Amino acid sequence: AGARPAGCSPCGVAALAPGPRRDALLALAKQSILAKLRLAARPSVPQPPSRGALLSALRRMRAQRSDGAAGAGGMLREPARPGMGLQEYEMLSFAEAGSSTSRSVHLHFRFSQEVAGSTEILQATLYLFWAAPGPQPITVRLLQPDVAKPNVTVASETRLEVQRSGWTTLDVGAAVRSLFGQETPRLTVELEVPEGWGSPLPSDHSDSHWPFVVAQAQATTPHRVHRR
Amino acid sequence: GVDCGADSRMCCRQEFFVDFKEIGWEDWIIQPEGYHMNFCAGLCPLHVAGIPGLAASFHTAVLNRIKAASAAAAVDSCCVPTQRRPLSLLYYDRDSNIVKTDIPDMIVDSCGCT
Questions:
Q1: How far apart are CA B21 and CA B34, in angstroms?
Q2: pLDDT, tens digit, for every residue of A66-90?
Q3: Residue B30: predicted pLDDT
Q4: pLDDT for residue A203
Q5: A184 to chain B nearest CA, in Å?
């Protein structure tokens, strides 16, 4: 409205009539949010996790925080000082069931390319719930695609002696961090038990004790404040 | 800062709320329910130029003296955000992971003249 000094670059909607102005502002809001989330378009309709799995995961994460057990999910890097303008992300990724045999089961965790391509991992923790009634030896392998060969390579192997059923956590920060530089950032976890011991995991996906990974990441490029 | 009224002409903050349900985004943005995309609009004539919001102070008085003395060389003064805060989002990404992030400087809390 009114003559505007030449030096000021308005966003131009102020001069529009109310109807077109609202549409322009809504379009601007969508574009602004997608740009800041580094998304080319809004994600398609999600397949949310089961309510039980989500509540169980949030409860477990809170318990882990209050235990202050940083050891299990050791920080890979200190987060930047607040006010540094580095945008931080927290991701909760539920497992996709992969191939399985009588002795082993594969779990896949996918991370979106948009976040993986512009952030670095500060910390990542794998949460597993053992349904085994008594002591059970279990080998946990972190597999990642090998760019040179069609199969996968073992990034790390951990042997656990599970005493009873319950949650356990594993620091997968280094494995997820190395994935974030790849084309399809997908972490594969292989759980193996001795022959005849039966799967250590809950029976199906909808179970509220389904495995998940919690990752903290930080944008690699500081947020630029544009002053007009 | 000053919020715009129906017929404000001077530099002020125009409130504008984007309801995610209205734009069909409520299925992938879990929280919040909308985004306060406020923006700054209005004129910054010379006598209010350089006053961030209502924060007049000693240095503003000195500035005004200098501006009054050099009115001929006055440069344009623009209505810009003087205070902003992050927009916290909880959303599903395209792999249906749940992501929480705070996008800095997305919500304008007050406006003032450069």
A1: 8
A2: 776 544 444 444 444 444 567 889 9
A3: 94
A4: 67
A5: 11
Q: What is the ipTM of this complex?
A: 0.81
- Establish how many alpha carbons lie within 13 A of residue A123's alpha carbon, considering only the half-sphere containing its beta carbon: 17
Q: Which of A108, A81, A78, A86 is nearest to A176 (CA)?
A: A108
Q: Residue A3: closest CA among chain B residues belongs to which residue?
A: B43
Query: Quick one: which H or E segment has residue A35?
Result: helix A18-36
Instruction: Judge whether B98 is closer than 8 Å to chain A, CB to CB.
Output: yes
Q: Identify the H or E element spanning A67.
A: helix A51-67
Contact criterion met (CB < 8 Å) for B100 and A89: yes
Q: With an 8 Å Cβ cutoff, is A147 touching chain B?
A: no
pLDDT tens digits for range A127-178: 998 887 778 889 999 998 776 666 778 889 999 888 888 899 999 999 998 8
Nearest one of B42, B17, B20 to B31, comparing CA atoms: B20
**Residue among A24, A1, A32 nearest B12 (CA):** A1
Nearest CB to A89: which of B28, B79, B101? B101
